[in-house]
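Supplementary Data S3. Sequence and structure tokens for construct A.
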Amino acid sequence: GNYSIYKDYKTKIELAEKKAAKTKAVIEKPAKPKSKLKISYKDKREYEILESEIKELNVEKEQLESEINSNKLATDELISKSSRLGEVLNLLDKKELRWLELDDLMLN
């Protein structure tokens, strides 16, 4: 290699580092502090409903996992139950995240 190849390489590295720094700066922006809000009746009700929905989804998740692991399912059933398990896990994530947000509001 010669110096021009080295310089091109160095320039590419510096550009990549600048892009990474910009991306990191965007990600690390601190969230705006939430002002203390009084929790509404609607939020309280949603909090209670979410608790029961999360319990039901956990029961369904355990049932699907046991059926999938039983090795007694036909291929079509296995595919549909695996698909439903993915949906249940996605719903659980969303509902648990919302529940945590509401729980934080309840504590403040």
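Construct B, processed identically:
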Amino acid sequence: MANGLKQEETKTNSCVITSTAESCALTLGEQFTIYEAAEIRDNILANWHSGQALTVDLSQTREFDTAGIQLLLALRQHVLTHHSQWQVNKLSEDAVNFLRFYNIDIANVATD
């Protein structure tokens, strides 16, 4: 840690959450479906705190369902309601296709 910030990492079967005092990064696994949604939600809410920027990495995610997208949008709303920064980055081709299929503007999802 070159910047001297304490970094904590939480790993589950469905995601990795890395957090410091200023930011929290959520890296999703290959599946983001109803089967993983509750575990992901519980872990991100336990590790993300108001004031931290939240970055979501979808580069490894290959399978989505509507529960996954509902959670993604609910997380976005929760973070923005708490006046924190929000960013989705590193979208897999499957993630891009899924968001387009449901007519969700990727630029809108990836805003700060």
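The two ends are 25 Å apart (CA to CA). The longest strand covers residues 23-28.
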